[in-house]
Write a structure and sequence with these properties.
With 79 residues, this protein is mainly alpha-helical. The protein is built from three helices and two strands; from the N terminus they run H-H-E-E-H.
Length: 79
Amino acid sequence: MVIGSGSQGSRVMRILERENYYNVINGYKELFLASKATPDTDEKYKAGTTFDEVYALYQFDRELRNLYLKYLLKLENTF
């Protein structure tokens, strides 16, 4: 996974501290993996995968869940 150095790397660290590594990386990495890890090998990301792409998917999913929750709560209140 491509993570820039300098201010880009600092930005990634702040995001992971705020959002939690597991929630961002482990929750959404499957779409970006070239091969799954086995006991003898490490996971490998597709060439050119960036942290920003994984984080964008995380943000999209969070917004979608919030949207569904909003309307599910309205529906529940109606019933």
